[in-house]
From TrEMBL:
It is an enzyme of class 7 (translocase). Pfam families: ABC_tran. Residues 1-22, 419-444 are annotated as: Disordered. Its EC number is 7.6.2.9. It comes from Galactobacter caseinivorans. Belongs to the ABC transporter superfamily. GO terms for molecular function: ABC-type quaternary ammonium compound transporting activity; ATP binding; ATP hydrolysis activity. This is ABC-type quaternary amine transporter. InterPro entries: AAA+_ATPase, ABC_transporter-like_ATP-bd, ABC_transporter-like_CS, CBS_dom_sf, P-loop_NTPase. Residues 419-429 have a biased composition (Low complexity). Residues 27-264 form the ABC transporter domain.
Length: 444
């Protein structure tokens, strides 16, 4: 049996130890335990967890359940009491911790920037330690600032206190990516910013991930964030007991037990909206027009199609106006005026974002833009509803990565196993599809 058989369906081209098709590398936690001095129960009890290369794995669970402890054991900010952590074929528990940390990006809440250093100096910390020359560091700093959507000329010489919370967070991400590490650990990265900034930072992280394909492990308190960002979600209970480890779709459609249901919260159907992107929906193609055109020509086109609105595009095909037949009938020539309040969403926005935009505009429709703001079509409430129904029909046809505990919290284990063979955790040592852990790359 091949090593890939127990990998998630959408990761089948990767081996357990990374693959050239991703910028990331697989991580395997093998029966990892952490007992703090004086603790009655271990903070992490015999956790085995496979983190596929190039995927985003989100850790969720109640406060104090061991998420941060698990995360920090990966880069040895916390030393495990027992077990192995294997990154790129190597058990890193025996490796020099400083060397290890230089190959793992780490992002914490509010960026964790050094206040006495400029943005550029903060980003340059690891490249400097690695002995890069000055020109290479300067070029890399600028490249990373561009990547996180900050203009290098404006921001490179600023100090952290001269940045907004969201900007500090962006610099934190840039710093973590500086030496192009295959692994990125994030601990509540967007916890300290307002909801709108948070949404933008999440979108940006997704864009960056689409480009770089890192292996990202991220702790969050926000289940919606876990669904939006995660390829896989690990739901933990006390002692880092893994209650469910699966795709956001499956966790939503088939929560392992009441504990997971509680985490999902109300409105599971609505949460489907956060799983799908605008680009997954069939867009409508309206009549378009350009500045300088005769309004009457556009009106007759509209009459031909039965539509009531035309989208005016500038020379770079960016939408600038959205005119009704009534507005068109009052003008002769279409102007190049830009309407700043057009309801617009990007292709990578979630259906939830799109619905928000439509509701705010109360038009039931929004303009969709793609690369460099070019118009790609219209989305409406009906197409969103159809996309959700279609997703339900195709839900849940894949196996998940391996995750289990050898710890002592039997109650949780029994609760999960009660869900039947399809939903149960592989507590008997078998993977979700019945393959052995040996086959899945988990070797003793
Ligand atoms: N340095 C420490 N010494 C002793 N106990 C600790 C230490 N750090 C964490 N713990 C305990 O270990 C358990 C797990 O803590 P951890 O911070 O990993 O949880 P968490 O799930 O990340 O929590 P939160 O969501 O509140 O951040 C908790 O009971 C915590 O009190």
């Amino acid at each position: 049996m091949s090593e890939n058989q127990n990998k998630p369906a959408n990761q089948n081209n990767q081996t357990a130890q990374g693959d050239s098709s991703t910028g990331g590398t697989a991580i395997l936690l093998k029966e990892v335990t952490k007992s703090y001095p004086g603790q009655v129960k271990a903070a992490v009890g015999g956790l085995t967890l496979e983190i596929p290369a190039g995927s985003v794995v989100m850790f969720v669970g109640p406060s104090g359940c061991g998420k941060t402890t698990t995360l920090k054991m990966i880069n040895r900010l916390i030393e495990p009491t027992e077990g192995q952590i294997i990154i790129n074929d190597e058990d890193v528990t025996g490796m020099d911790a400083d060397k290890l940390r230089r190959s793992i990006g780490y992002v914490i809440q509010a960026g964790g920037l050094f206040p006495h250093m400029t943005v550029a100096a903060n980003i340059a910390i690891v490249p400097k330690m690695l002995g890069w020359d000055k020109a290479r560091i300067t070029a890399r700093v600028d490249e990373l600032l561009e990547l996180v959507s900050l203009d290098p000329a404006v921001y490179r010489d600023r100090y952290p206190k001269e940045l907004s919370g969201g900007q500090q967070q962006r610099v934190g991400v840039a710093r973590a990516l500086a030496a192009d590490p295959p692994v990125l650990l994030m601990d509540e990265p967007f916890g300290a910013v307002d909801p709108i900034t948070r949404q933008r930072l999440q979108d940006e992280l997704l864009n960056i991930q689409a480009e770089l394909h890192k292996t990202i492990v991220c702790v969050t308190h926000d289940f919606d964030e876990a669904m939006k960002l995660g390829d896989w979600i690990a739901v933990f209970d006390e002692g880092a007991q893994l209650v469910q480890y699966d795709s956001p779709e499956r966790i939503l459609a088939q929560p392992a037990n009441e504990f997971v249901e509680g985490f999902i919260g109300s409105g599971a159907a609505l949460k489907q909206l956060s799983l799908q992107r605008v680009r997954d929906v069939t867009l409508l193609q309206p009549v378009t027009a350009s500045p300088g055109e005769n309004a009457s020509d556009v009106l007759s086109q509209l009459q031909g199609t039965g539509a009531k609105h035309a989208v005016v595009l500038d020379a770079r095909r960016r939408p600038i106006q959205w005119l009704s037949t009534r507005q068109l009938s009052r003008m002769e020539i279409i102007s190049d005026q830009v309407d700043p309040s057009l309801p617009q969403v990007g292709e990578s926005a979630t259906l939830n974002d799109a619905l928000d935009e439509m509701l705010v505009a109360s038009s039931g429709q929004a303009l969709v833009t793609g690369a460099r703001g070019a118009f790609v079509g219209l989305i409406n409430v009906e197409s969103v509803t159809e996309a959700i129904a279609a997703a339900r029909r195709t839900n849940g046809d894949h196996s998940a990565p391996v995750g289990l505990n050898s710890g002592t919290m039997a109650a949780v284990a029994v609760a999960a196993a009660d869900q039947g063979p399809d939903d149960a955790l592989p507590l008997d040592g078998d993977g979700p599809d019945g393959t052995s852990l040996e086959d899945s790359g988990v070797r003793s």
